[in-house]
Specification:
Order of helices and strands: EHEHEEHEHEEEHEEEEHEEEEEEHEEH
Shape: globular
Length: 512
Amino acid sequence: MKQDSFDVVIVGSGPVGSTVARTLSDEASGLRVLLVEAGPLVTDPPGRHVKTLADPAAVERAQRLSQAGRPTTAPPPGAIAARPGTYLVGDGKVAPDGTGLPAAAMSKNVGGMGAHWTCACPVPGDGERIPWIPRPDFDQVFDDAWRLLHVTQEAFEGWPLGAEVRAALRGALDPSVPADRQVQPMPLAIRVAHGDRYWTGTDVILGDAVTSGSVELRAETTATRIERDGDRVFGLTLRDRDGRESTVKTRAVFVAADSFRTPQLLHASGIRPSALGRYLNDHLQVMALARLDDSLIPDTVRTESPRTEGTLELFSGVNWIPYDQERSPFHGQIMQMDASPVPIENVTETWPGSIVGIGLFGCKEIRPEDRVTFDDSNLDESGLPAIGIEYALTETDRATIADMQRAAGRLADALGGLVEGQSPTALPNGNSLHYMGTVRMGAADDGASVCDPFGRVWGTQGLYVGGNGVIPTPTACNPTATSVALAIRSARALIDDMRQLGVPTKENPIAT
């Protein structure tokens, strides 16, 4: 029989929800923990990254199931198609004035985007860091996050084009950038053993937390309302796949659904801080394609080599241009053609790996007017208030994009030049899939934030939020590793809060 009482219920099984579950399991193993996920199991073990599946049919099936039943069909003229494994939040139509997030998308499956992400885990730079979290504290939990995610910069150590590409890029960038922010291999969440690469999904993050029984996982279970007695959480109402609703009792709820569905659940529960859904933040993004100069291509690569679609060849890899607020105010992912998460069509390679994708990410000007809205009179498929998006680029944003386009052109020239007929292109709003700010943290309950620096929602005891949505700063780099670090910090605060309530654990068996 299913339990109906828990110490902690976690909503969302993506990287952040799974991190909280794993931290509670490892550091307070006596807590009764439930992890609920609205989507289905799509891989075995639960949360496994689809890139680790050898069978293309299994990959296609997992991606299709993650799309919440949306058909995989060509979009109508003028609309954007969702990437495999995701579905659009809106209709994908690009507004003539550039407003909205037409490419905004999400996944609905056990593991969330952790089953589909690029696994890039860069270290945020000055300007991206959250100023009210002490640097030593953040550095510690960020190191913990890297260990949990199995981050390495050696996954493609020795790949033939790596050193050549990095040297060419360094020549086009400011030489005064500190050594730790110079061009380098991208930190990737991936394990390498005997030449095989296993990309980190939430199966890796969870470890044995579920199989050992310390965490119960319920798939196809939708959280519909956080229940409160006054200002304290006492339960969570859930709906199973057959539409049956029940309320589980709990001392704490940790919502890690994503930057759209986390504020949606709070809104539906009548928990509505003034900043809820506001300060929506997406990266500004520019893409360019360069063709490597022949002088950069080693003879070892100049062979006819069959390519395995969807995999990274040994001559491929991903390089990283770290964000530097003063000298390189963008984050760069420089990747060979077959490593790019953005489909590249109608471009031929002279030699394997000779086409390089230059992806630059810039900081959006953060404004309260950029927001997620909720329509109480129009319910979505989950029975929750329908999501809307209000979002616009400012003149500062447009100037940043123009600067990034020029920078992408310079980087392409350093590598050998833009691919014929190509130019640096600004990608549609929402393309990054890195939405932030909608449940942002703050140093004080001043109306401009939803939670405190540990993820505790202002004014509601026992309620915590996590994920990219808590990040309050202008950010250019991929945010997942930062969100996992913040989740570890929040989970440890939650454990301390449980101890203050006298909840016994194996580590602390006597109630205080």
